[in-house]
Amino acid sequence: MTDRRAHADAGKASRASAASLQAGAARPGRVDAGKLERLLRPNPFPGDMGEMSPDMAAAVHRSEAHSGWVAAFAQANPDPGASLKGIVAALAAGRVLVPALPHEHPGRTDDGGVADHESEPDPTADAAAEAATLSVRIPGGRFATPVFSCAERLSACYPGARPIPVLGANAAARALTFSGVLALDPRDRSGKGCIALGRSAVAAVAAGEEWAAPWDNPRVLEGFERALSEGGHPARVSLAPMHSGVIRLYVAIDAASEADAYRAVAAVVAAAEEDKCLRAHLDVVEVVPVSANSHA
Predict the structure, then answer these.
(1) How, if at all, do strands 247-253 and 285-291 pair?
(2) Cα–Cα distance measured from residue 124 to residue 121, given in angstroms and rounded to the nearest whole number
(3) Which of 27, 55, 154, 258 is deepest in the core (most CB within 10 A)?
(4) Which of these, 121, 210, 213, 127, lies nearest to 167 by C-alpha position?
(5) What is 162-193 written as a DSSP string?
(6) What is the dihedral of CA 260, 263, 264, 266, to 10 degrees?
(7) How many Å apart are CA 25 and CA 21, to the nearest integer?
(8) Where are the alpha helices (DSSP H) in 104-217?
(9) Average model confidence (pLDDT) across the chain
């Protein structure tokens, strides 16, 4: 009698457990449709091993040694303007890597399971937005969004971070919502050794348009020459891109006094800050006053 009752109770328990499992499986809201869509989405970067793309490598001309990146880059590329244009073109046509930093463990539930995360980044979208909130300093002290050409350089700057491949256009678009400037391959979180890409280049990549380099844009020089002419300053200007991405604005001054030279430089700086066209093209710039005789 006791055995039959025990078997009956066991059968009821089994049926109840099965019913509970079925009810749990059928319970609405158990499947996150957005998460499921992300999991099933095709990988846009199949076979990506985190290496520098051929186009980017050709533009940067990375040295075989893993130190002195910018120094080796400068020695091997006497024309920094051509290299910067190549980097921008490679960024527009390919991908970069952004760091996904490790987050704190969300803790455990009462039954020992892992608690729900507050957010689960989408490796192909949200990661770019999260990375865009990171920043490093570029020459001149401005902040820029760091991106990387290969996993090795990313890991050197952000040890423990997971490299996430992102289309260059997407990384550029995200950067425009924060700093507006990209820092390619900084060696550390201070921004040391990075190649700065200004807002005009970033905006062109984000829009899928060809970048008009400031030193090739006659409107840029015309804007400065107009400002100098209106102020009656005997000076000339020229632009020279640097390997760091900074654009040097040389002001060749033919002034009778130091005060006149100062006023000419002040006119150039004011034009760079107030003229919409100049401000849009020259946000990573270094003004260098020189004697007109030495810069002839």
Answers:
(1) parallel
(2) 9
(3) 154
(4) 127
(5) EEEEEEHHHHHHHHHTTTS-EEES-SSTT-TT
(6) 160
(7) 6
(8) 126-132, 151-157, 168-176, 199-207
(9) 77
CA 237 to chain centroid, in Å, comes to 30
Handedness of CA 17, 22, 28, 31 (dihedral sign): positive
Looking at residue 209, its pLDDT comes to 94
61 vs 195: CA distance, rounded Å:
13
| 206's tokens | 């984000």
* Distance between CA atoms of residues 279 and 273, nearest Å: 6
> If pLDDT is split at 50, 70 and 90, which confidence band does 196 have?
very high
Q: Which residue type is seen at 160?
A: G
Q: Cα separation of 267 and 233, whole Å?
A: 9
CA distance 205 to 6: 73
Would you call 8 exposed, middle or buried from its count of C-beta atoms within 10 A (0-12, 13-18, 19+)? exposed
Q: Which two tokens stand for residue 108?
A: 């455990």
Q: What mean pLDDT is predicted for residues 33-54? A: 71
* pTM for this prediction: 0.72
Rounded to whole angstroms, how far apart are CA atoms 187 and 113?
A: 39
Q: What percent of the chain is predicted at pLDDT more than 90? A: 28
CB 91 within 8 A of CB 181: no
* 57-71 core/surface letters (b: 16 or more CB in 10 A; e: else): eebbebeeeeeebbe
Mean pLDDT, range 144-168, rounded to an integer: 93
Tens of pLDDT, residue by residue over 209-239, are 999 999 998 899 899 989 888 888 888 889 9
- Cβ-Cβ contacts under 8 Å for 173 (sequence gap 6 or more): 206
Residue type at 284? Answer: V
